């Protein structure tokens, strides 16, 4: 059974699985550690249970979970749009498609440490935010876009007491100051020391929500403090602050982009992505079979331009298809095609057996049965031929009655049909005319009996024949 599944996989299916596995893996690399990733993980778990409920026939449970999954996917886009935007704001396409270290540039820690302690020496207050993996833009307000490279002069000018934005926070991402004058949420905790001012409460307030590192320079005491994970502590010298910054931005890692533990994590994520997408593919394409029957018109291909199809046994055929319920429900009639190759057809009657090769199906849908399995088509070179008309009398005239003469209008007619058929016909007959009730001369209108049905009356000829017959009465038996 398992071998039959794998033997039915086309190269397109393998490429489909690998492509989507890599997309899922890249999403993991870009969003790991963020709130978006945690919510997506929850949605995946919910989707897994929804598929389990569907397989077990729990209709209501499956329907409810499917609704929650769809709504949750929409919530991610709306609620976490800022976090998604910040992750995808890469300087080049490489950072999104295949780079494993998403950074906007290394933070110049030495310059930052020197600048902060120079501000502390002159009792110049400052509030600096270094984001972590989580998005901070939904927790801060205001601010002026800056996007300037970090330098001691730049930092000193931002927090100079006569600068209109000196009371707000400066946000540093990579080697740039991206925003200044930003307002942070204030902590409402009651156990904060009374000598901490608004800057310290703002630093603690932001650290309570996300994994950012916030540096505070006290204007009153000239002290430097850092807040992270909801806690704040005083930093006494540049060496200590440098170590804290290195730990936050990841500079203290080994030269290798991925230590052994992280390599194992990434490898496991790649393998998990492949297994998950493969499972999804099988659930859609090789899941519990559902049957459906469609009426599909027959298309004739590669016909000799000198010949025409004069007659066909059927115009469409019934195909019974099988596949997963999801694929069958989404199947459209135009996705299924039945094609017959006429490149080897000869003049006259041709018989074609419908096989899998004649039917085009979307991926994951399989042919179960076809009816009818044989199609007959008559091909020939169309010609015109003028033929005399003969009335096809049937029955027995009454006693004492005889038909003395018959006049036909027209006497001849032009037919259009296959050459090999018309070559065998010398006379064309009308449809049967009964004589049982004839007792006097009369005029009637009859149609022609065209056999085979592929024969057609030329557009310049009449399709009705006027028959005028003359009756002679005798005294004896006819």
Summarize the structure.
The chain has a seven-stranded mixed beta sheet, sandwiched between helices. Strands 13-11-8-10-14 form a five-stranded mixed beta sheet. The protein is an alpha+beta fold and 478 residues long.
| Poorly predicted ranges | 251-257
* Amino- and carboxy-terminal Cα gap: 80 Å
CATH topology of the largest domain: YojJ-like (1
Nearest-integer average pLDDT: 82
The H-level CATH homologous superfamily of the largest domain, spelled out, is DNA integrity scanning protein, DisA, N-terminal domain
Instruction: Output the strand order for the largest sheet.
Output: 2-4-3-1-5-6-7
Kindly provide the radius of gyration, computed on alpha-carbon positions and rounded to a whole number of angstroms. 43 Å
Describe the structure.
This protein has 13 helices and 24 strands. With 478 residues, it is α+β, with helices and mostly antiparallel strands. The chain folds into four domains: 125 residues, no CATH class; 141 residues, YojJ-like (1 (3-Layer(aba) Sandwich), CATH 3.40.1700; 92 residues, RNA Polymerase Alpha Subunit, Chain A, domain 2, CATH 2.170.120.30; 92 residues, YbbR-like domain (RNA Polymerase Alpha Subunit, Chain A, domain 2, Beta Complex), CATH 2.170.120. Strands 2-4-3-1-5-6-7 form a seven-stranded mixed β-sheet, with helices on both faces. The protein has a five-stranded mixed β-sheet with strand order 13-11-8-10-14. A four-stranded mixed β-sheet has the order 20-16-19-23. β5 and β6 form a beta hairpin. The longest helix has 26 residues. The radius of gyration is 43 Å and the shape is rod-shaped. About 1% of the residues have low confidence.
């Amino acid at each position: 059974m398992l071998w039959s599944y794998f033997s039915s996989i086309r190269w397109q299916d393998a490429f489909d699985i690998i492509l989507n596995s890599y997309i899922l893996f890249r999403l993991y690399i870009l969003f790991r550690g963020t709130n978006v990733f945690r919510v997506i993980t929850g949605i995946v778990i919910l989707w897994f249970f929804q598929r389990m409920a569907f397989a077990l026939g729990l209709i209501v449970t499956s329907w409810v979970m499917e609704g929650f999954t769809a709504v949750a996917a929409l919530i991610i886009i709306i609620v976490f749009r800022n976090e998604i935007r910040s992750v995808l704001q890469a300087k080049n396409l490489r950072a999104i498609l295949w780079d494993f270290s998403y950074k906007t540039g290394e933070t110049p820690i030495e310059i930052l440490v020197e600048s902060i302690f120079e501000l502390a020496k002159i009792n110049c207050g400052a509030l600096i935010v270094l984001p972590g993996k989580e998005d901070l833009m939904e927790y801060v307000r205001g601010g002026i876009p800056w996007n300037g490279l970090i330098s001691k002069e730049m930092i000193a000018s931002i927090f100079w007491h006569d600068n209109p934005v000196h009371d707000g926070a400066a946000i540093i991402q990579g080697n740039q100051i991206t925003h200044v004058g930003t307002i942070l949420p204030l902590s409402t905790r009651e156990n904060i020391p009374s000598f901490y001012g608004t800057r310290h409460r703002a630093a603690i307030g932001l650290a309570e929500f996300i994994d950012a590192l916030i540096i505070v320079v006290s204007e009153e005491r000239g002290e430097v403090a850092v807040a992270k994970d909801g806690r704040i502590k005083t930093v006494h010298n540049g060496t200590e602050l440098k170590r804290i910054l290195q730990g936050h931005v990841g500079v203290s890692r080994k030269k290798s982009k991925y230590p052994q533990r992280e390599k194992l994590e990434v490898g496991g994520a790649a393998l998990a992505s492949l297994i998950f997408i493969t499972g999804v593919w099988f659930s859609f394409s090789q899941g519990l079979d559902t049957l459906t029957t469609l009426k599909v018109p027959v298309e004739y291909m590669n016909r000799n331009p000198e010949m025409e199809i004069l007659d066909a046994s059927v115009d469409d055929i019934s195909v019974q298809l099988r596949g997963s319920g999801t694929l069958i429900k989404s199947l459209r009639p135009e996705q299924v095609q039945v094609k017959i190759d006429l490149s080897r057809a000869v003049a006259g009657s041709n018989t074609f057996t419908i096989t899998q090769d004649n039917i085009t199906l979307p991926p994951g849908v399989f042919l179960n049965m076809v009816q009818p399995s044989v199609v007959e088509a008559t091909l020939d070179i169309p010609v015109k031929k003028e033929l005399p008309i003969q009335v096809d009398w049937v029955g027995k005239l009454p006693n004492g009655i005889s038909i003395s003469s018959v006049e036909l209008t027209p006497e001849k007619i032009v037919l259009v049909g296959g050459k090999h058929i018309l070559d065998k016909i010398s006379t064309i007959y009308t449809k049967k005319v009964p004589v049982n009730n004839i007792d006097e001369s009369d005029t009637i209108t009859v149609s022609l009996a065209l056999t085979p049905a592929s024969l057609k009356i030329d557009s310049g000829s009449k399709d009705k024949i006027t028959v005028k017959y003359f009756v002679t009465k005798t005294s004896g038996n006819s």
